[in-house]
Amino acid sequence: MGYRKGYYKKNGTYVQGHFTNNRSKSFSNRNNGCMIIVLALFAFSSIISCSESTDSTENITNSNSGSGSSTNSNCPTKTCADFKTQAEAQTTYNSNRKCYKNLDGNGDGKACESLK
Length: 116
Known about the structure:
By secondary structure, this protein is mainly alpha-helical.
């Protein structure tokens, strides 16, 4: 919108100054760049917020399962109490050391050393 100064018509009458819409009725080309940037930022922020909510959901699931740590959600929660012998715990630990790193408390590669 712009302000139009007062002017005289051909018949001699005076038209007082007023605000007018001096843009064309079609979408203005000078704002297309801004609109594209705004839409791109909106799309990017929605992608980020969706991925963060997925991560936080996995962390909540893991913390509710009793482990208290935020490990990979594909790993089942196992503790030394879940095994009868050290050999069972060691076999499970060897199958995936990253998932079952809580079975090896001191990091020496032997799982559940307190079991016999």
